[in-house]
Amino acid sequence: METLFTSEELVRIEAAAQECGVSLRDWVRDVVLQRLKGEWRHDLEDAVWPVTVHRRPGGSLHELHHAGCWVPRGGEETLTTAEARARAADYEVRFCDACEPERFLVPFD
To answer: Which residue, 34, 50, 77, 102, shows the most beta carbons closer than 10 Å to its own?
Structure first.
């Protein structure tokens, strides 16, 4: 995470995380995901979802991430929320194990 933020930013982030009572990584993830203390922003439909492509024998694996995930390196294809839901429903993308974007795209029953 040190490569993503300056030392001054890390100090402020650590202070904010302590104030909220969460880990540094969880605080960053929550802010990037636009949620804190259970408050979800209503503009989730405007989010972007990066897709990484992993070349493997027999084909490519397309993995879907939320915008705050640390796996994408930048420059990947991005999907709208509607596109991400559709591609996930058609099993065209696999959900990232690190950031678990299905929490936001799959309806709860």
So the answer is: 50
